[in-house]
């Protein structure tokens, strides 16, 4: 018996001396400087959701979806959080990238201005000045919005500039509206002025197109299938946890990046993001479970209005996969 106890003790001591299996280091690059939409990633890291899946997550800010897509294609980032239509334009030209989950399944694009100007519907845009950034994703879809709402270019004036110039134009009164995302530019304007912004959402006028999602290099996905599954499982759980605690999720941004904004507008921006996670078809599903029809419609719109090569319509499924998402309740 003493000998047996000695053997068991030796075995236990051997296991205790063995180093714990190291977590997989994963770099997630965002689409832009941090704002409310990004709260789930920071919350998931802070709450140990990624660690529980054996992932040591590093979150890096981005400089635009196109740049992040290039980083993922070049394997300088493991995953990217980007505008999926922007990723499509890169993929059709040969970039080895694929969406492993589409989070924003309703478009956040809008024309927005100060709420006190009472610009509430497309008809109200007539006679106004709209600030745009040439060649960005919203400006490419803008002609479709005009077509859907019966507006003409001659109904309003346009001023053009980069992202900051566009914001300044509205803030300084040189423009009545700008084209922007409901949870991004609107919060930047509110941070700068303290005034509420009202968005006229493209999605409310029949423009059904996906927006942000997780992408990865196609070779990386093949070589690291288990890690991709664990990452998407953790990210799904992070989104679900953040939905339940929006303010705590927003606070996680500031805990990691004290200069990342103001808690009130970060929270409000995230709360404006949550309704974009699902469509009528995915209302009861977990995050990222995009439908084939939604993706097909998005590809068709991008071909017609967004500069996507027409051959993309031959195989919309080449741009995304749901195969690495967790099943219900897991």
Write the layout of secondary structure elements.
Layout: H1 2-17, E1 24-29, H2 39-46, H3 49-52, E2 55-60, H4 65-73, E3 79-83, H5 84-92, E4 97-102, E5 109-114, E6 129-132, H6 137-149, E7 157-160, H7 163-171, E8 177-181, H8 185-193, E9 197-201, E10 212-217, H9 218-223, H10 225-244, H11 246-256, H12 263-273, H13 292-305
Low-confidence residue ranges: 15-19
Report the mean per-residue pLDDT as an integer: 93
The coarse silhouette is globular
Strand content: 15-25%
**What kind of sheet is the major sheet?**
5 strands, mixed
CA-CA gap between termini: 44 Å
Q: What is the C-alpha radius of gyration, as a whole number of Å?
A: 22 Å
Contiguous helical run count: 13
Portion of residues within helices = 40-55%
Secondary structure: number of strands: 10
Tell me the structural class.
Answer: alpha/beta
Element pattern in H and E: HEHHEHEHEEEHEHEHEEHHHHH
Summary, kept brief:
With 330 residues, the chain is an alpha/beta fold.
């Amino acid at each position: 018996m003493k000998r047996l106890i000695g053997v068991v003790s030796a075995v236990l001591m051997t296991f205790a001396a063995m180093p714990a299996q190291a977590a997989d280091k994963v770099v997630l690059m965002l689409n832009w400087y941090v704002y409310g939409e990004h709260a789930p990633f920071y919350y998931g890291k802070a709450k140990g959701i990624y660690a529980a899946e054996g992932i040591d997550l590093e979150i890096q800010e981005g400089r635009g979806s196109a740049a992040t897509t290039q980083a993922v294609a070049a394997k300088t980032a493991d995953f990217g959080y980007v505008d999926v239509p922007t990723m499509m334009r890169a993929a059709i030209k040969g970039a080895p990238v694929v969406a492993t989950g589409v989070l924003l399944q309703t478009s956040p694009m809008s024309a927005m201005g100060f709420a006190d100007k009472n610009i509430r519907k497309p008809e109200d845009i007539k006679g106004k000045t709209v600030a745009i950034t040439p060649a960005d994703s919203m400006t490419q879809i803008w002609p479709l919005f005009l077509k859907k709402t019966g507006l003409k270019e001659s109904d309003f004036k346009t001023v053009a500039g980069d992202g900051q110039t566009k914001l300044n134009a509205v803030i300084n009164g040189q423009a009545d509206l700008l084209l922007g995302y409901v949870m991004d530019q609107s919060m930047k304007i509110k941070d700068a002025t303290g005034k509420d912004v009202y968005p006229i959402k493209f999605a409310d006028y029949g423009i059904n197109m996906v927006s942000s999602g997780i992408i990865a290099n196609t070779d990386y996905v093949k070589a690291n299938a288990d890690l991709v599954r664990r990452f998407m499982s953790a990210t799904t759980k992070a989104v679900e946890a953040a939905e339940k605690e929006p303010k705590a999720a927003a606070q996680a941004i500031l805990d990691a990046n004290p200069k990342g904004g103001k808690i009130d507008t970060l929270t409000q921006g995230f709360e404006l993001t949550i309704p974009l996670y699902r469509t009528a078809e995915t209302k009861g599903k977990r995050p990222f479970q995009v439908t084939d029809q939604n993706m097909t419609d998005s590809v068709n719109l991008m071909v017609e209005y967004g500069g996507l090569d027409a051959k993309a319509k031959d195989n919309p499924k080449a741009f995304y996969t749901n195969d690495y998402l967790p099943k219900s309740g897991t």
